[in-house]
Structure formats: structure tokens, C-alpha cells
Amino acid sequence: MIASAFKRAKALPLSGKVGLALVIFWLAVALFGPMLAPYPVGAFVAYEVFDGQSAKHWLGSDYLGRDVLSRLLSGARYTVGLAAAAALLASSTGTALALTAAVGGTKVDEPLSRFMDMLISIPSKIFSLVLVAAFGSSLGLLLLIAAFTYVPGNYRIARALAVNLAQMDYVQVARARGEGRFHIAIAEILPNMIHPLLADFGLRFVFIVLLLSGLSFLGLGVQPPDADLGSLVRENISGLGEGALAILAPAVAIATLTVGVNLLIDAIGFSGKGKGR
After folding, report:
1. Which residue ranges form the domains of the chain, and what is each CATH number?
2. In sequence order, what are the residues at sequence separation of 6 or more whose Cβ sits closer than 8 angstroms to the Cβ of residue 40?
3. DSSP H or E run through 258
4. What is the pLDDT of residues 31-64, one digit of tens each?
5. Largest CB tally within 10 Å, which of 46, 84, 93, 198?
6. CA–CA distance, 188 with 184 (Å, rounded to integer)
7. pLDDT, tens digit (0-9, with 9 covering 90-100), for 197-220
8. Within a 13 Å sphere around the CA of 266, how many CA atoms are in the beta-carbon half?
């Protein structure tokens, strides 16, 4: 299995290898970063605010004299962890509803699809702002809000795939054998949707990273004393004129994370098309 994954990674184009390296790097930072932080996250360790790079502080200090590298390593866990969990929840919920609509007939498909169309017509950021204002911004609520915001988008793609696959001959044969709807959805339709859904999962992840970072920049995301990458940008905004690393480092982190995922998705899609020819 590891050898097969290595061969697939080796077959990726250069852009895909760059994207894979960035994704692996940020996953490693999210998993092990806080343990490698040189200082406690909230400790005041520098006498100067927005201090430059030095041997003691590789990314300088922030607006309160805290070590930027330590806060970046900690903040990446919230950004990557929340976004990955929310994307997984949104994709699994949307796909389950799409499969239900595909095998449930028009009585299930029509009202469910019209409800999702209504939700997807609302801009995601406005929708999430309303939900945050109504229910708050704890970590659990942020996870649910981010997932709920992007369920309709996943449902729309998954339903289109499932409805097309439901008309295939092998699905008709399964129906003729007397297989139940659950078996048809899980055993016949879902396995043939995996690759497009994985690409969509990557896109949902990027969207949610940007959404959570935007909410944190507005002060509505992860709340102090915790901080994600968006919070680090917001709290150090006064150092923008000085070009402080305290604001540049988390901004570059968000950019490299999202660009890396996009490069990997594009490369996987390209290699998938090549195999099908």
C-alpha cells in the first residue's frame, strides 16, 4: 500500500509534487507543531514588539512581544484541524443526502434539492456571519457552521454524479435482482463517485480555510487565548506598515496551504484523465 502511494506520488507532475509537499508539510505542522514550539504560546519572551528575525526568535515577535513561530505552529493546528473536520463533515453529509435523493425517487429528490438550492443561493460568508451572530463562535460551533455552510455545494455535485450513475446498466441489473436502495447507494453508486468527491473535498477544504480565516480576521472566528492563522493576521495588523513578520508569516502560511491543496487537486485530476484515455 505504501509502495503504491509512493508510485502515484512519483507519477505526479511537478506542480502536483510541489502541492503534495506543501500539504504534507502543513499536515505535519498541524500534528506536531505545538510540540516543537520553542516557547509557550502565550509567553512574553521579547522586549521589543514586532522585533525582527533573530537566532532566538526565527520569525520575530508579535505586537505583545510573543514568539511568532510558536504562535504560528499552534495556530496552524486550529486552521488545518477545523477546516479538515468541517470539510469531512460537509462532504459526508452532502454525499449521504445526495445518495438518498438519487435512490429515493422524485418525492425525496424534489423537496431536498429545492431546499439545497435555497441554501446555496445565499452567499457563504453572509450565511456564516448570520449563523455566528446567532449561535456564537466556540470551536464546536465554528466546526458545525463551516460544515453546514458548504453542505449544499457538495450535495449539488454529489447528486449530479449519483443521478447519472443511477441510470447505468449495472445499477438497473442490481434493481432487477431485488437489491434494496441502501445496497444500491452504498455498493453500486458510491464507489464510482469516490474520485470526483475527493477532488471536491479538497475544494471544500480550501473554501473552509478561507472562510474561517476571514471570520477570524473579523474577530468572529477562533477566540483568544486560542488563535488560528486568520487571528494572527488580525491581531498583528498594526505591524503591516513595518512589514513585520508577525503579519507576513501567517498570511504566507494561509497562501501556501491553499495553493498547495489546489495544485495537488489539479494534478490528481490531470493524472486521472490521463489514465482514462
Report:
1. 16-272 (1.10.3720.10)
2. 70
3. helix 245-276
4. 998 888 898 888 888 888 888 888 888 888 888 8
5. 46
6. 5
7. 988 999 999 999 999 999 998 888
8. 13
